User: What shape does this take?
Amino acid sequence: AKADRRRDERFGILQPVTVKVLGSNPEVLHGVLLNVSAHGMRVQLEKVLVPGTCLEVSTSEAMLLGEVCYC
Assistant: This one.
């Protein structure tokens, strides 16, 4: 089995999110936040995004800026 190399514990959550893709071709996507940690999150979207894409992720409680690391 492959060891989990994440530096922080992840916490499962199922919460709707709105994701704004930032940059020269902005768009708005809707998805579900699947888990969070101190340094990352996993979001399921209706579209595949390229690693390096800058995002604004909004929930009913918070707005976060981030970058796609894996897809």
Summary: The mean pLDDT is 90.
